[in-house]
């Protein structure tokens, strides 16, 4: 399969990058080797998505729950993130990618926050694909934080309770202008969404592969997009074919 065979490219792809630790364990290597290889795959897949014309790629990079991992592993992941951000800036410039991040970013070490801001600044004027890393991220916390923001606006008299709707709520999430993901990919085989973009993926198409993230390649990405492109997205509505069949059975 090649990208020329795919007609319907998702505007926004979100990926739960799972399996780094299990990949390393299966190869009898330290867990950090899985994270190292996983970072290389991020570089490749982000370039490929930009080449395909994807408008946004959001990657579940470090969850709120990941802070509970062993201190040494967390420290390694933060250092790996810094190295990735420094190295990735060249990719951002060369591929016209705009960088952003969502999550409880103030919980990250100051030096990591500094590198994040540099990547945001250097790519600010790029108008190609948006690459968004979810860092120190938990969707339940995002929803609670949005609720607090709205409650504060009501308390100050800036809005009325009647003004609260889906659009207003979305405007108070971490990235107000984020379009909902069209396709959610999960590697590693687990059939769950793991507190990732719960509000935004309400009608996302799901694609799960047993391939671990360090082994995820262009071919896997194209397979996921090909699967997406063959689906009829109904958003809770009756499909045109079902409507036609219903009309034939019960003439109007």
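-> sequence recovered:
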């Amino acid at each position: 399969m090649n990208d020329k065979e795919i007609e319907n490219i998702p505007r926004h792809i979100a990926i739960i990058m799972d399996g780094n630790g299990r990949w390393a364990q299966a190869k009898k290597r330290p867990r950090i080797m899985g994270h190292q290889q996983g970072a290389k795959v991020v570089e490749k897949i982000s370039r490929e998505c930009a080449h395909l014309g994807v408008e946004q790629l959001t990657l579940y990079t470090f969850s709120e729950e990941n802070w509970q991992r062993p201190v040494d592993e967390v420290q390694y992941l933060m250092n790996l993130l810094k190295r990735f951000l420094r190295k990735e800036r060249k990719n951002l410039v060369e591929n016209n990618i705009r960088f952003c991040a969502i999550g409880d970013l103030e919980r990250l070490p100051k030096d990591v926050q500094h590198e994040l801001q540099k990547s945001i600044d250097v790519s600010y004027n790029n108008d190609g694909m948006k690459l968004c890393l979810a860092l120190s991220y938990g969707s339940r916390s995002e929803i609670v934080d949005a609720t607090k923001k709205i409650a504060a606006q009501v308390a100050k008299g800036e809005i009325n309770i009647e003004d609260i709707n889906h659009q207003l709520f979305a405007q108070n999430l971490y990235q107000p202008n984020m379009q909902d993901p069209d396709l959610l990919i999960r590697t590693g085989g687990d059939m769950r969404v793991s507190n990732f973009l719960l509000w935004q993926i309400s009608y996302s198409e799901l694609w799960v592969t047993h391939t671990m993230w360090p082994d995820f390649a262009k071919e896997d990405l194209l397979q996921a997009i090909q699967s997406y492109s063959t689906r009829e997205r109904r958003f809770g509505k009756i499909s045109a074919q079902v409507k036609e069949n219903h009309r034939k059975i019960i003439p109007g």
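The chain has a mean pLDDT of 93.
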